[in-house]
Specification:
With 293 residues, the protein is of the alpha/beta class. The protein contains nine helices and eleven strands. The two termini are 27 Å apart.
Length: 293
């Protein structure tokens, strides 16, 4: 599959815009923005913390397919959170021109990069392409994040802080006995909530939001996972990443987030994605028993 990169690989300190030029805050776009969440809830913990230096670089991998309306809104909000953050848009040849728009934005923003793929090939493969791109360029932290504003950019500093003492940080919709989801139909909520319960029951994964897609990984986790062996491509991809990291002995912590359903564009959820998740967790369980994870 042909892939093309756009955008200049910018300095860690960020552009002039990141240093103080005015940007629209997320609360302007999302009335009732999230207040600062409580401290992370650890699934497993160790003593000691990894200090993040001012010259460390963090990458938000953001897959896109027909996100032309949302991209100009989400990019400045993410970059405004920390001057060490950069974004990689992984576009699967969006018919609405998202890839062209992203390349145009990248020409004026050195902290924005674009990886274009030839065709729509699934969320999991888009993230894997982004992970490889990040590892080749030495980023210290790598994030998964939706482009549709359902993941609140203001949570990024909380995930960064939690990553100082854990290798994997999960932005969790279902932590501390609460369900933090806005504007979802009950059917979608039940699929997500019980899907996470189903996955952690079968696999033993010690997090409540097994299917969540707002996550942070230290680079050593992605280096250890052998990305070529990851087979899931839809909803199950998030489960498989967490299971493999947990089985490799990495720490997982959850921090509470509020998930807000997209305001524009169409959800990528489908029955095929749900079916894959149902059987894939059993495949993961079998691989655990056979010692192949």
């Amino acid at each position: 599959m042909s892939e093309r990169l756009a955008g200049v690989h910018g300095p860690a300190a960020g552009s002039d815009r990141a240093r103080g030029a005015p940007l629209i805050r997320h609360e302007t776009l999302r009335p009732g923005g999230l207040v600062a969440p409580p401290a992370p809830s650890a699934a497993r913990g160790r003593e000691g913390a990894a200090a993040f230096a001012p010259d460390d670089r963090f990458l938000v991998v953001m897959p896109t397919y027909d996100e032309r309306e949302n991209l100009p809104r989400i990019v400045p909000l993410v970059l405004d959170e920390d001057p060490r953050i950069e974004i990689l848009v992984v576009d699967d040849n969006s018919p609405d021109g998202t890839g062209d728009l992203a390349e145009g934005m990248a020409r004026g923003e050195p902290r924005l990069h674009v990886l274009r793929r030839a065709a729509k090939d699934g969320l999991g493969r888009a993230y894997l392409a982004g992970f490889r791109w990040a590892l080749e360029r030495g980023y210290r932290l790598v994030f998964e994040m939706d482009a549709d504003l359902s993941h609140h950019p203001d949570n990024l500093p909380t995930l960064i802080a939690a990553a100082a003492s854990a290798e994997v940080v999960v932005g969790s919709r279902y932590v501390d006995g609460r369900v933090n989801v806005v504007n979802w139909p009950m059917s979608r909520l039940l699929i997500s909530y019980f899907g996470s319960f189903y996955a952690r029951t079968i696999t033993g994964l010690p997090v409540r939001d097994a299917t969540g897609g707002f996550n942070c990984f230290r680079r050593e986790v992605l280096e250890a996972l052998d990305l070529a062996r990851i087979q899931s491509n839809g909803y199950a991809f998030q489960i498989e990443l967490k299971v493999r990291a947990f089985r490799r002995g990495f720490q997982l912590v959850e921090v509470p987030i509020v998930f807000i359903e997209r305001e524009s564009g169409e959800s990528k959820m489908s029955k095929r994605i749900v079916r894959e998740a149902v059987w894939r967790v059993w495949w993961l369980r079998i691989q655990q028993v056979l010692g192949r994870l």
